Amino acid sequence: MFSPCPSTASPAKICAPAYTVKMVPASDTTAPKLSAHFVDTATPGSVIVIDAPPQTKNAVWGGLMTAGAQARGAVGVVISGRCRDLAEHRAAGFPVFARGHSTLGQGTFVRPSAINVPLVIAPQGIDHGPHTFPAVEVKPGDWIIADENGVVCVPQHMADEVVELASIGRDVDARCMVDIKAGKGIQASFFKHRGR
Prior knowledge:
Layout: E1 14-25, E2 47-51, H1 63-71, E3 76-83, H2 86-92, E4 96-101, E5 110-115, E6 119-121, E7 136-138, E8 143-147, E9 150-154, H3 159-181, H4 186-194
Parallel strand pairs: 1-2, 2-3, 3-4
Antiparallel strand pairs: 1-5, 1-8, 6-7, 8-9
């Protein structure tokens, strides 16, 4: 996934628990219907994670939703699908990460069917082979971390372990950087600090 926000001095970043939204084709009459708009029930401090059906051509998020999400205290949105109104998100300073964008709204194409349910987000637009990334399950409350480099999901039960490992990795990379900038070479620095 990528952020439609261009790189700036302070690029968009998210680190918050997931509030999940499952979209279905508008023609699906068997899937449940929500009694309230999903943005209106977003949890303060959460990141809204939306899973749209694969190959959906329309946007499932726009500027009005950003305004509503901000009013409810959501900190950003991650969309396995498309968004629109990019200038409005940027002007609002609201982080929006999506697979793409579209000028088409959701109304006649897809609709929300469930909130705070597990989502299975599969890779799209790539050949599925032995080296393809597996689908990612996002459960409500899982930690979503996103920045200009991409989006990851950390299951709640792994949060402490991931923080510990990431801290160690950051410290090792900082020591490598010092040595590399001092001219010691990448291979030698990696071997010294990473052991390989």
